[in-house]
Structure formats: C-alpha cells, structure tokens
C-alpha cells in the first residue's frame, strides 16, 4: 500500500497533460500464421535518451495460442481519486489483457521490471462464461469501483454482448454489469461521463457475425451495429438509444470528452453502405436528451479495381474504414485512423459539433502502400489502426493490424506489422517521425493496441475538471 | 465530561474532517462540477450530518449496553471491537460505493453515514467516552449527545475550511502530494484507541 497517491494518478485531464513523458509502450501482438504460436505482449522503449529507443525490449508470449489479444487496460487509474469511491493509495501496476477470440484474460504485473511484465493471473474462459454469461472480452477500463470489461457476445457467440466487472483486488469476474439492458443487444465499446453518472456503449456485431470475417450479406442488409446506448452508470439501467442511421455500419470507438463537466464525445462508424465513406458522430446532451450528429465524413477514394481485394473490386474505390479514434486530454485534437486508405487524420474538435481538419499523414493503405519516411523505398501494408496519444497530447503512436480474419480480407497478401509515431504540433498538424519505426516483420506477429506506461489519452477517466 | 475527553473528541473530529474520503473532497468535486462555491458549501451540511449520525448511533448503542453491563466488561468488549476493526481496516482497503456524482442532499448524507460507519468513525471515539462512572441512562444519553456534538463541531470546522481553501485557492492538484494514506493512519488510530480502552 502506498503512502501517497500513485504518482500516475491526476485529478484532472489537464493536469495529466503535465505528466512526465512516457518511457515504455506495451503492445499486443497477434499471431496470424496459425502455427501454434501464441500471441505476445511486447514492450517498446520510448525513451529518446535510451540506446534502445524505438526498439522492442521484451516480448512475453502468452501461455496458449489463439487468444487474439485486443484492447487491454490498467487495473486502476486516475478514477481512484474520485470523491465518491476514493482509494488513491493503490498502484497502477497490473495490465489486464483480454483474448478476444479465446475469452481468456491475462493479468500482468509491470511493477518490478516494467520492461518485462510478469504474468500473475490467468482467468480461464470457463470462469468468465460461468460468472458473467458473456464471452469475447474486448475492452478494459479502470472504473471507480471495479475493472470494467466489455464482451462482444454471450457464451454461444450471439447477442447480447455487454459489460462485466472484475474485482479490483482479486481480478475475479463479478458478473454482468447491466441491471436492465432495455433494447440493447449488440455491443462493442463502452466509456462514461463520470461527472454525469452516464455510460455510453456502442455496437459492432456478435462474435458469430464477425469471427469469420466481414460478411457482405450482413453489411448490405445493414445488420451490423449502428446505435449508441446511454445508460445510468449508477443504476446500471438503459436510458436511451441513439440510432446513427442503419447505413452507418459498425459504430465502434467511444471517446467522451475528458473534462467531466462536458457532455459530449465522439464515435466512429466504419463504413457507410451508401457511399463507402467512414463517419464520425458527435454525441451531446441537449435539454436532458442525448443526441448525435454526423460531424466528419471521410469519403472513399477511387482506385484501380485491379489493385483492390476481391470484395472491393466491384466498387472501384477504397473505403477509409475508420477503425479507431483518439482524443487528446485537453479535448482539442481528435486523431482518426483510416485503415483502408492508410491515412491518419487530425481534427481540431474544440468546437465539437464543427470539427476542422488540421493534419494528415499516410503510411500503408490497401492500394496506396505509402512508405514510412524512415524507409522511403519500402512500400508498407496495413494502415493506421489502433492509435494512442501521449498524455501531453504531442505524440501519437499507431499500429497497422485490425483483426485476424478482417486483415486477410482487406490485405490478402498479409500484413507486415509496424508501430510508428506521429508528432502533433500545437496547431494540430501532424508529421510522421522518420526516426521511429518499429518493424514487427521479423517477429511475424502483428501489433494491435498500444498502451503507454503511466497512462495515455484513452486509459484514464477523471472526476475533476 | 473532563477537558481531556473534550480535547480528544475534538481532535478525532479534526482528524476525521481532514480525511478527504470523509467528504470535503466530495464537496469540492460538486463545486467544481457546478462551478459554484454555493455547491461546495451546500454539500457540507449533509456530509457532516451523515457523519454525526453514524457517530451518534455507535455511541448510543454502547451507552445502551453500558446501562445493563458491568463497566469492565464493556471496556474489554469495546477494546476488542475497536482493535479488531482497526486490524481489519489495515488489511482491507475496500471502500463503499453507493452514489455517483449527481447526488441529492439526502443521498450525500447517506453516503457520508456509510463512509463514517464503514471506517469505524464512531468506534474510534468509544474508548474516550467510556471514562466516568455515571450509570443512569439519562446521564449516558446526555454524555453521548455531548460527545457526538463536540466531535461533529470539530469535524465541521476542519472539513469546511479544507473544502473552501482547496476549492478557492489550492485546487485539487494538491491531492497528488497531500493526500497521504489516511486509511493507514485511521487503522492505527483505531488500534490505539482499542488499546487505550483495555488499559484504562
């Protein structure tokens, strides 16, 4: 037990921006070859003063193959300072790492040797099935009173998906979170407005709808998720659903404003069946009702059908396939990953209903195959995917692999994994750092999510403005 | 009551008021959320009321026991209870979570009652109030009220001062350095109070 609060906890997001620079990144690695090799948790050195800067300094292989690691998170974070459940003398030292395909959850301790996380607990799938009724854990958030985990489906891989909780101290699954789910069936991401006791959840599809790869029939039939759900975070009851329009298939990542007094946030939809565009919606509270408005459209880019993978040939265009977004801690800059076109875009969202584009860089892309400035002659595949912004809002790290069966469809020649960094200027413009390119081609596994040591812009939530 | 008792009761009141987990931090947070000092001040009465209620209930229960039980037995019983609770607090770090950030006055009072009870705020005062040999129920109830009153007044003074100073001047960033582990100190204080009850 600590005597002073964990130094990585900050009462407000603005204060967290003054945190010291991150020295390590943890990266989930996905094995795609199916040769019985497990996924891994890699550690990357981010300290510019270190001789190992920009290289992998350790990889911990999981105990069994086939997990498909996705969005992991910390055991506790700044929410431990919240006044109604205060317990700041705990340590941010465990990474909770869920296997999206296996439904297994690993808990790593990073305290003693941060570069080499130590596996301290494994929650087997059967335990999660039995205690929660859910499967396919996907996203982990440190809550005020427990660790919250989203799950894409029930134990049969069907609806409903939802949220379950893990005990803060023992990591034992506590059961499903919802007391009344109302009409909610599909599930993907979740986050909250702590200052308003409100949870928001989004929709992708059930495990049976996504595990074999994107299903064109479901897509054309507009069967993937396209709604947001608003919940009472205290009572765990469904309050409201917001339909973004069934043409906007797959409503994924939720990025609420970090300032707890604000009542808005952003969500990306992956593909519009009308024009293959990807869209960002702003949700907001107005007169006691939560609403959403489409505020950013990223159009598809025309392309030579000969260069396109099978399902896209008929359209002669590359959809941007926006798969992740990240919001700086001052709620000012929103970074948007267009995995299809290979573009990372930046928007000034100070006026959340009227975003203004401030920057763009390219690397990879289905047809673009843009090179990284550090290796100008080498075409890159995959595209900007999971993006994580440092606490000071000056650096964005992003990887290029989405999800095994979806990677194969859009990048049929395979993906050589990379992790790169873009620097974010004061005016919101972005530039790739030519000196930072972590190439996972030699390892053979593909990087997915990145977490930064001490926290990043999508790991913590705050109770004070 | 003797002067020493009064001072100790007030001291514990100040100590409880000092603890951000007992409520002043909640008042600051509500003030920041609403951007209003009125919200800070408005949160204090329910918080103090809940705390006082918890203390009063504990003291009253023991006063009732004292009417029917020999004093030595009560002392040893209280000593065991308070020490045991202190040890438990030392080993267990869970906090009750009952409300969120949008609270009514009654919910805030209820939360404060729960926090004070779960932390053993009343238990910590028991050993101090055991002194004296008045056995009549009336005297005990008067003493109980007085003890809770002194404790609450001290708590109110400290908690209100802290809430206003942090809200107006220091800002919540002070928490990162100044919020030393009061749970640890709290557990030690409970154990100390229990030992005191056994020895006197």
From TrEMBL, chain A:
Q: Which domain of life is it from?
A: Bacteria
Name of one Pfam family that matches: SBP56
UniProt lists compositionally biased (Low complexity) regions at: 373-384
- Residue numbers spanned by region Disordered: 361-385
One GO molecular function term?
A: selenium binding
Q: Which residues cross the membrane?
A: none
Q: Which InterPro entries match?
A: Se-bd
Which family does the UniProt entry place this protein in? Belongs to the selenium-binding protein family.
Protein name as annotated: Selenium-binding protein 1
Q: Which organism is it from?
A: Sphaerisporangium siamense
Automatic annotation (TrEMBL), chain B:
- For this entry, the protein name equals Uncharacterized protein
Q: What is the lineage of its organism?
A: Bacteria, Bacillati, Actinomycetota, Actinomycetes, Streptosporangiales
- The record lists the membrane-crossing segments as 6-32, 44-67, 73-91, 103-125, 145-167, 179-199
Q: Report the source organism.
A: Sphaerisporangium siamense
What keywords were assigned to this record? Membrane, Transmembrane, Transmembrane helix
